[in-house]
Amino acid sequence: MDTTTLWLTIAAIGIGTFALRFSFIGLSGMLALPGPLTRALRFVPAAVLSAIILPAALRMPEGGLDIAIDNPRLIACVLAAGVAWATKSVLATLAVGMGALWALQALM
After folding, report:
1. Which has the closest alpha carbon to 79: 101, 107, 53, 102?
2. Distance (Å, rounded) from C-alpha 76 to C-alpha 71?
């Protein structure tokens, strides 16, 4: 595959992805969604973030679960969750979570 074909393929995939995602966002502004659906959609980002973070925090390299006090990722997640609950600040949560993870990985 030559370079031009590669870039055209990447551009076509990017345009297609943008059009697909924007169609839902654009249509949601034109449609009147029912109240329960609107309330449920507010929880989608938190659910997606949890689905991404929890397996990474609890999974051992061998594939099993690591629910132990010596798991630095689990401790960092608990600290970040506490900061998120107390401050409701995304930046503070990220700073504490990443800082705790780096510090614990350096110590352990």
Report:
1. 101
2. 9
- Reported as a single tens digit per residue, the pLDDT across 45-103 is 889 988 998 888 888 777 788 888 888 999 999 999 999 999 999 999 999 999 999 99
Sign of CA dihedral 21, 26, 30, 34: positive
Q: 7-17 pLDDT, tens per residue?
A: 999 999 999 99
Determine the Cα–Cα distance for residues 89 and 78; give it in Å rounded to an integer: 15
**Residue the block writes with tokens 């609107």:** 38
- Token pair in block for residue 21: 């995602």
Give the CA count within 13 Å in the CB-facing half-sphere of 61.
0
